Amino acid sequence: MDPLLKVWAPNAAGVELITGASRLRMQADEDGYWSTPRPAPGTRYQFSLDGGGALKDPRSRRQPEGIFGPSEVVDPAAFPWSDAGFRPRPLSEALIYELHVGTFTPQGTFDAVGERLDHLLALGVTHLQLMPVATFSGVRGWGYDGVDLYAPHAAYGEPDALKRLVNTCHARGLGVLLDVVYNHLGPEGNVLGQFGPYFTDRYHTPWGPAVNLDGAGSDQVRRYFLDNARMWLDDYHFDGLRLDAVHAFLDTSAKHILEELAEEVEALAQERARRLVLIAESDLNDPRVVRSRAEGGFGMHAQWSDDLHHALHAALTEERAGYYADFGRLEHVARALENAFVYAGQHSEFRKRRHGRAPGDLSGHHFLGYLQTHDQVGNRALGDRISTQLSAGRLKIGAALVMFAPFVPMLFMGEEWAAQSPFQYFTSHESEALAEAVRNGRRGEFAAFGWQPEQVPDPQALETFERSRLNWSELTDAAHSEVLAWYCALAELRRTQPELLDGRRDRVQTAWNEEAGWLRCQRGSLILACHIGTATCDVKLAANCELLLASNAAVRVHGGVASLPHDSVVIAKAR
Predict the structure, then answer these.
(1) 179: phi then psi, degrees, rounded to nearest 5
(2) Cα dist. 110→89, 126, 159, 385 in Å?
(3) Crossing angle, helix 218-234 and helix 257-272, to 10 degrees?
(4) For residue 324, which phi and psi values (nearest 5 degrees)?
(5) Distance, CA of 130 to CA of 43 (rounded, Å)
(6) What is the pLDDT of residues 164-195, one digit of tens each?
(7) How far are the Cα atoms of 116, 150, 392, 484 from residue 232, in angstroms, in the given order?
(8) Most CB atoms closer than 10 Å: which of 232, 281, 410, 516?
(9) Cβ within 8 Å of residue 373, ≥6 positions away
């Protein structure tokens, strides 16, 4: 543990450390940092700038009283780790499971997540991906409005509880990824701007002031986020980070913040002899996000691939509102399976312009594929899951296409058993004015889609949060168990068939018939055929093939041809 407690406040004439009734003047250096000997672990403290009011530490490791309370000194090296030598499975072999700590279990804690690992292991999951856990306003929320980025959210458990979860996952062979938000901070309890030029009015984001990544004073602002990434990877032993909405990183520097982050994480991985990954969320359809730095890219290891989701969702549900207007045909699903990006320079009707760029020779391992995510469920007016809209047959088709695709598959918690509980947008802001603004903003957003204000769940209401908890008792129902068995079978097939793990997009071949409603996808000797049309249809597989999986007992395979009833899918292997 660093013997000095430091804070960056370059414009302050004086900084004091407050502990109880004591005030101690800190010493300044030429870089704008103020320091003093670090108090003992457990000490609660605050800072005062130029004699002003008490402020929490921008790098606080714990906020036991929430976003307006004092910070607490934590010894990051005190936890007794037992995961030496653990190496997660590579992304090429991964099955990622996204979960929200607060709603994954009835208890909503880090420790409670650890009690459900048997279920995830039986499913075939290799990596957990936790939605953001940095301290945010109130006790319940999605976590994307965090304000104390170095402190795990107290309602989920103390810092050691998060370390216990990661340590337990590693002991069970599971990697753990963390979703982090560096493009903005939440509006309530955000004190960074009082310490230094963390934000800029030169750019704007949909969520609030843009982070100052390229203006005056930005070197230390960038350091704040780079050090935060290192903290989660080094002190908490996370195996990788998912970076939220990197298209909102507004940075004109010669070395983009993503490139600098990739460089530092690579150095840390070499230093610690660990496998660390960076996964970006970007809606730009720009392959530079995941191209290597040597090729002029940013060097992320993978990125979310929304086009596959949109293509599947629109084809299976027949929704066409919003960005789904760009999708809906089996041709779009086929293009996503082959290219990751459906829009790679073509005109987008939704955007009213050309969108995207071809991914070239990038492996499928650079893209995550999914049928559901927290965004694609929670950003709907009612937070309704696709499992509430589709038949079990169509759900099985969607799952099969995700697991058969050349990408890294990701599931959203509860998807594997067709959970019926929604995942709605919930908050617990302490400011009633902010709560009302969020409430009205949510209602206004969906008014354009014909929703009446009273139909849109109140984000602040406790019942909105409680409705969003997974209902684990659904697993005792035969219909849900059937879907779970299908997901388990798909995961096992992917694990045991090397051609499903090679990521080779050049070996993906598709064919489809829009009118008849069937699509065929082949990867080497493996063939998937699905049917969403009304009448039973025949789809040619291979002259001599072995049936591996069928979603419906009525599916027939004879003479290399699959006879597919409505809403069914089959996977076979050519001999």
Answers:
(1) -80, 125
(2) 22, 18, 10, 24
(3) 40
(4) -70, -10
(5) 29
(6) 999 999 999 999 999 999 999 999 999 999 99
(7) 22, 8, 39, 32
(8) 410
(9) 98, 304, 309, 410, 412
pLDDT at 354: 97
Mean pLDDT of 473-479: 97
Residues acting as catalytic residues: 244, 281
Q: Do residues 404 and 500 lie in contact, with contact meaning Cβ atoms separated by under 8 Å?
A: yes
| 277-280 and 302-304 strand pairing | parallel
Burial class (CB in 10 A: 0-12, 13-18, 19+), 548: middle
For the chain, the 3-state helix, strand and coil shares in percent, each to the nearest 5, are: 35, 25, 45
Contact 415, 384 (CB under 8 A): no
Task: Give the N- to C-terminal CA distance of the chain in Å, as an integer.
Answer: 60
| % of the chain beyond a pLDDT of 70 | 100
User: Cα(29)–Cα(32) distance, rounded to whole angstroms?
Assistant: 6
**Can you tell me the distance from the alpha carbon of 56 to that of 375, in angstroms, rounded to the nearest whole number?**
31
Name every residue whose Cβ is closer than 8 Å to that of residue 565 and which is 6 or more positions away in sequence.
Answer: 531, 536, 552, 554, 555
**What integer pLDDT is reported at residue 360 of this predicted model?**
96
CB-CB contact of 493 with 308 (8 Å)? no
Over residues 497-521, the mean pLDDT reads 97
Q: Which has the closest alpha carbon to 11: 198, 190, 212?
A: 198
- Give which of 199, 242, 251 is closest to 221, Cα–Cα: 199
Question: Could you report the per-residue pLDDT of 30-57, keeping only the tens digit for each?
Answer: 999 999 999 999 999 999 999 999 999 9
- Please tell me whether residue 177 adopts helix, strand or coil conformation: strand
> What CA–CA distance (Å, rounded) separates 279 from 51?
42
pLDDT for res 450: 86
With CA atoms as reference, report the closest residue to 371 among 400, 331, 339.
Answer: 400
Nearest to 72 by CA among 201, 158, 179, 182: 158
The phi-psi region of residue 122 (left if phi > 0; otherwise alpha if psi is between -120 and 50; otherwise beta) is: alpha
Q: Could you give the maximum distance between any two Cα atoms of the chain, in Å?
A: 85
Q: Model confidence at 527, in pLDDT bands (50, 70, 90)?
A: very high
Q: What is the pLDDT of residues 315-350, one digit of tens each?
A: 999 999 899 999 999 999 999 999 999 999 999 999
Could you give the CA distance from residue 439 to residue 441 in angstroms, rounded to a whole number?
A: 5
For the cut 80, the answer to whether the pLDDT of residue 448 exceeds it is no
Give DSSP secondary structure letters for 248-275: G----SSS-HHHHHHHHHHHHHHHHT--
What is the tens place of the pLDDT at every residue in 203-247?
888 888 899 999 999 999 999 999 999 999 999 999 999 999 999
Q: Write the DSSP symbol of residue 323.
A: G
- Give me the pLDDT at residue 14, please: 98
pLDDT of residue 208: 80
In the predicted structure, residue 198 carries a pLDDT above the cut 80:
yes
